[in-house]
């Protein structure tokens, strides 16, 4: 309870005495649960090093793209362009 009050002062959070008691009880339950997890039987195997067995779930890079060779066509299709640049509305104020 004393620690809860101290932490609430550090965080500049005003808590009523009832709230401090409730939070204290919640923290006790959380810490008791963590203790149970620490003592849980995990099968005696090696500790888990990686979260999963997937080594590389990303696809391989492919050369080229769907746009390659169609740059001029895409620029012409743009609503507004200047040479090889597509003009867009300004998003930053000067």
UniProtKB/TrEMBL annotation:
<dbReference type="GO" id="GO:0006450">
    <property type="term" value="P:regulation of translational fidelity"/>
</dbReference>
<protein>
    <submittedName>
        <fullName>Asp-tRNA(Asn)/Glu-tRNA(Gln) amidotransferase GatCAB subunit C</fullName>
    </submittedName>
</protein>
<keyword id="KW-0808">Transferase</keyword>
<dbReference type="GO" id="GO:0016740">
    <property type="term" value="F:transferase activity"/>
</dbReference>
<dbReference type="InterPro" id="IPR003837">
    <property type="entry name" value="GatC"/>
</dbReference>
<dbReference type="Pfam" id="PF02686">
    <property type="entry name" value="GatC"/>
</dbReference>
<dbReference type="InterPro" id="IPR036113">
    <property type="entry name" value="Asp/Glu-ADT_sf_sub_c"/>
</dbReference>
